[in-house]
């Protein structure tokens, strides 16, 4: 066994929890600066092992706690893990953990995390080889020095401790104390025996007179016993008769009580039914009021709708007539338009042909006129010019003028062509816009139809949802009324149930419900009564079995129960409850309960969720229902069960029978059943109210959404309707504009034709001038030219005549065309106006376009709906009134029945009270008889039982004679009043006391002899132990000293009283048994050593130097340890005062002991010698007044020690 690991927290300079790396089973060395906490580590180990710090005061405990900056340390602990692979510690574990915790008010030990006492720890350590007598397995600083400077007597005391003589001496002192107490008891016994002997002599004289008295007293007691027994028999007969009468009355009371309870149940049922009927009537009256309100509203709406429909029908009739008339006009106009259009279509080609002919003739006239004019100017101007050049010059000037005029006409032609193109473009645009407007008008008309259909659908949907919402509101109000009614019944049932609990349980159950709801704990299932359902027939039996266990709270685990308790502790008014954690309840061993016709397992009559089986079994698992206590007692005894009758009487497993009157009106399970039922109804009505309200709210939102859609469509409809007329007027305006543009185009084309004709004439005239200029100058025309002139003149006359005819024809056709166009325009305008009127009438708008007549079909649908609502409300109202009439009749019947039942109840209550009073009288009489019986019983008990022969002699004697004889005997006994009635008893008592004292004295004598023998044995064992220990230590000291100082030698000597030399070598007496006088003469242990030679005379310890003394002390410590070995050793700087050569020897000695595998060493040092032989190394640091320790390498340890060596 060895120390495997050490953990320190809060102890002295070790503030933080420090867990050392596992120690080596061999030699472990700890290094560190002075004051860093090395010694505190050793103090921590000593603190756990009990080597120090026993029976500490509060101040001493405070000194062990860490003191420094930061938070105050309130607790500290040191934990040691032992390797127990060798099994030194009992228990079979490979590791044993021992912890000691200290605080301001505590000092506790824990073994493997289990709390143990200090005595148990000491016993454990002693069983593992840690002897109280040998403290040298831990050598703190100063102990080597103390042993170095110890006196011979102190070394002898150490040797005695190692030998274990302290135990012997403690036992010897205890034995001597017992011896002293025994001598005192023996003296006291002698005194008591002497006094008893004197009293026995006095009582011997009183015995004879006492015998005479006893003979008469025996007769008296026989007489009294006989008389008393006869009185007892008579009282027993009276009691038996009284009990029979009482049983009869009890049965009668029970019968009345059952009837009374049944009556009470009927009254409660009738009362509940009346309340339910009243509640239903209230709801029906509310429904009736609502239905009447709905009916009135529907009637008003119907009347209003009827008026609107009449107005709409009247308006619709006028509109239809207007529409028919207008449609007729449209047909007439369409016929006329078609006729005019056909005529116009016939005239237009003729007009175009006439215009073309006129233009061609005008062109020809112009050409002829130009040619004629040229010839005439040539003829008329020939005399005007003197020379050809003068003529040519004039011609040139004329040509220039004509060309300028021609250019002007060309510009006009271009301008007119451009204007014509622009007019045609405008005509195209206007045509597209007119077409677009017509399309838009048709689209709007189509959209209006769609809107009307959609509005009808939305209004129907809105009306349906409004009706549904109204029904939901009515349903929610009805559910709220049921909720209120159920809440009242629930509160009443819970008040009845809570009244059957004590105050603390009631407060506890309420607190648990509130806490579970506030923290939303899913693991709180409720009280046991809430989790089970018992058949009505077995409720009394179940209550008798469960008792207050019905109010135990079932939870899923102990963690939930702990959390609830913590919350309850915060409030002093939280009461008290008992929890049943399902995780902690043990499942009962499956045991088949007796299956017989006269017993039923209670569990079979209880319904519950299977997950609560453990909780239900805990209460009802060993209970059966039996028909009577006689059967129940047998089952309870044979089967070790609890038997209960249907009336609640119990037979316990240990034989006890309990029972009595049970008030059936105060049934916990019935109240719990009612509370559960009303809670279920309350939660159901609450859910219905919430769901109906939520659904109504959703429908309200849908109605708002539908209304918004209707409003939006109305707005759109009004917008479309209001925008139709402007669009129509726009079409008319654009049509007029199109007509004007066509007229303008015609004018522009005519102007262009005229300009082109003039341009052509100018070009012809220029050609003639050019031809004239090329001809020779003459004063007359050539014959060809004259002929041509004549021909042109004739042609002109002919063409002009044709032109006149063409112009007349064109004028007529043009006039006819214009008339037809005007007629067509007028007809079209009229038709458009009439069509617009028809559209407005079709859209529900009067001709004025400002007042909405409404949709007759929609209004008729509304009227039909209101009519249905009135009919439905009338039918529903009739049904409700019929149901109200039925319920009123039923309520009247129930009230009459209740009144009758209450009268019967009062009668039965009086009868029951009468029977109870009679039972009370029976109880009073029985109590009186029992009191008398108890008095006679007391007299009999005080009298005792006289001899049978004395009793038998008076069995047939009349009671009167017995009383006379008793009086005579009592008179005789009066003369014996002075006699000591207890003389014989006292004589016998004193004789017994004397014999007991003599036996006790003999036992004390034997004990005294045994104690004297024990003291002798203890003295012998103590002397033998001292001598044995001295020989072992002496031998080991010589061996170890020689190893530490091979050149020298050392030995121990014992010093006795009266020795001239003051020393004696015990080897001289090895062959003789040590006697007591010799051991008592020992006064000390001396040491003689030689450091230079094995032959030189040895020196006494006082003659040595300091380093030599330390080496001798260490040799003595190693010798003691070898004599009484421990599993591990802790040395704190034992080599501090040694010379280097001796430090090396001590290190080698430790190495040798470790190599043998017998012990573990944990040492501290400032010297390098131990580091060379150690197995593991640890360094202690001290930072901010806090120590810490951790494993380091050998090189780090050596470097540290070398740095700490003085330079």
From TrEMBL:
Recorded coiled-coil stretches: 186-343, 441-496, 738-830, 856-925, 980-1028
One BP annotation, GO: cell division
GO cellular component entries: chromosome; nucleus
The name this protein goes by in its record: Structural maintenance of chromosomes protein
Entry's family note: Belongs to the SMC family. SMC3 subfamily.
Keywords assigned by UniProt, alphabetized: Cell cycle, Cell division, Coiled coil, Mitosis, Nucleus
Annotated region described as Disordered, given as residue ranges: 405-424
